[in-house]
Amino acid sequence: MSTMQRSRPSETVAVVRPKRAFLRELLTFGFVGSIGTLIMVLGANLMRAWLGDSPITSVVVPGIVSTLTSYLANRFWTFRHRDSDGSGREVVVFFALNGIGILIQVACTGFTYYTLGLHGGIAYNLGLLAGVGLGAAFRYWSYRKWVFTPAAT
């Protein structure tokens, strides 16, 4: 066998490892996101039903609880292999980007409730879930880009 043929398996391994790491990262991010979504949806519905808060307030308060939970789980599990400079910048940027994510959720819920005039529970939850989905896509992209940066080599 030539040297060229022997080097191909190692090249394949080099390509597979980043794909596995990305897949692991994506799956753990999804799991953490699922927990955050449960906190958001259950909290929002409880606040809306039991406390009579507005649909906007009922998204913001559980959003803050979900954000704190998500930060801790993502920092110490999903993105644990990525650098943290310890300066607090990561926390500030994470919460700022989550603020944008919450605004996306509020916009979807507010649009459903105020613009479309749909006040029922199903419409509320559909608007909430649309916001959660769009917010999650934004969060994943922004976390990888600005918060949990690749480890220095």
Automatic annotation (TrEMBL):
Residues 28-148 form the GtrA/DPMS transmembrane domain. It comes from the Bacteria. Keywords: Membrane, Transmembrane, Transmembrane helix. InterPro entries: GtrA_CellWall_Glycosyl (IPR051401), GtrA_DPMS_TM (IPR007267). It is a multi-pass membrane protein. The chain crosses the membrane at residues 26-47, 59-79, 91-116, 122-141. It is found in: Membrane. The keyword Electron transport does not apply. Belongs to the GtrA family. This is Flippase GtrA. It comes from Actinomadura algeriensis.
